[in-house]
Each structure stands twice: as C-alpha cells, then as structure tokens.
Design brief:
Layout lengths: L1 H15 L4 H24 L5 H54 L8 H4 L5 H22 L5 E4 L2 E3 L1 H14 L3
Antiparallel strand pairs: 1-2
Helix pairs in contact: 1-2, 2-3
Length: about 170
C-alpha cells in the first residue's frame, strides 16, 4: 500500500523531468528500492544481527561500484545508473529475505488498526507532524530567493541540498 502511495507521489516528478526514458525508469526503480530499504531498516534496528545485514550492504555496494564503473564505459550515464541499480536491488532483496527469515512473514494482513484509527489519533498526528517537520526546512530553502527551479515540479537549493546529501550519506549507516 505504501509503495502505491509513493508511486503516485513520484510519477508526476518523473514525467516532468527531461530525461531519456531508460533513466526515468531507473530513477523510479531506485526510488522504490531505497524506500524498501528504508522500511526494512526499521525492522533491522530491532534485530541483534546487525553485522549480517551490514555484510549485504557491503556486497551490494561492491556490486554497484563494479557494475556501475564497468557499464559506464559502455553506455555512459545510463550504464552507470543501471550498474548502480543492480547493487541496490541486491541490497533491497537481501535485506527483505533476511528480515523475513528473522521476523517471519504474516499469514494474512491485519487491517484492525484502521478500524481503531480514532483510538490512536494522537499516534497518527505525531507521525504526521514528525515527517512534516522533517520536510518543512527543505520547502523553506527550495522556495527561498536562493532556491533554483529545475523544472515545474522540482526545486533545488545548491548549498542546502549539497550539505544535506553529504550529511545523509554519513548518517545513514549509523
């Protein structure tokens, strides 16, 4: 369900960006793979088998580096992107398999939480405001006088986005 919502969010951006079709498909695939990994990391954080998960990140990163650099020589940027995606899909798949091995897979989906929504309104509100707070600074920077409009749906603030990206790279493994 959440992947369907993410798809609905990302497709307008991908349609509006002027990229060749294979790069759009790879961008969409990377977006989904990264979101799958993000959700799985919530489960992984509850596991004491962190080193087994780390092994898959290292293997997937090596695959991304190897295939990315090899295919870049043959197909330029689309080849680099595709090679990188091979490693990321390995990571997402390996993490999914390992998570199911540790925590199991439910026999059926339990939708009872939806029927008890009123009982947990404060939990919904806290989650909503947590994520709104995580995004409000981006919107402020992007729409500031120093933000740049890359296309009708995509904004960028050079100093903010570059620093945030580097910070995210170092904070994610932690």
């Amino acid at each position: 369900l959440s992947l369907a919502a993410l798809t609905a969010l990302i497709l307008p951006f991908l349609i509006s960006i002027e990229l060749v079709f294979p790069v759009k498909v790879l961008s969409f695939s990377l977006f989904l793979a990264m979101n799958v990994m993000w959700v799985l990391l919530n489960y992984i954080s509850a596991s004491d088998e962190f080193l087994k998960f780390l092994k898959h990140f290292l293997i997937g990163s090596a695959i991304s580096l190897g295939f990315g650099s090899g295919l870049a020589h043959l197909f330029d940027f689309p080849g680099l992107f595709f090679g990188f995606m091979i490693g990321q899909i390995y990571i997402a798949t390996a993490l999914f398999i390992k998570t199911v091995q540790i925590f199991g897979f439910p026999q059926h989906l339990n939708w009872s939480l939806i029927s008890r929504f009123k009982q947990y309104r404060i939990l919904f509100a806290s989650g909503f405001f947590l994520y709104a707070g995580m995004w409000v600074d981006k919107l402020i920077f992007w729409y500031s006088p120093f933000g740049e409009r890359l296309n009708p749906l995509l904004y960028y603030h050079p100093r903010y986005n570059d620093v945030f990206y580097i910070e995210f790279l170092f904070a994610t493994p932690v």
